[in-house]
Please model this.
Amino acid sequence: MISAIIYDLDDTMVNSDPLHERAWEELLREHGHEFAALPEDFRAGFVGMRIIDILGNLIDYLQLKANKDDLYKKRTELFLEIVRNEL
Model:
């Protein structure tokens, strides 16, 4: 019987920020951009945002010719692959 569930929403148990950053790096590289080249204040604004909302901002900022839902699916696949292999 499960008596408790812990949700790690703020990296209390696992620091997943570097893994998320790697997923962003790989996704943007596929579209000819570098995540690290984005202004720091722009990237800092992503903290606490949903992935789908971040993608909307990136599409607008980088003028990507891509479908947000397709990017979301690909970004999720990249992140889960990184988690499976490295976490």
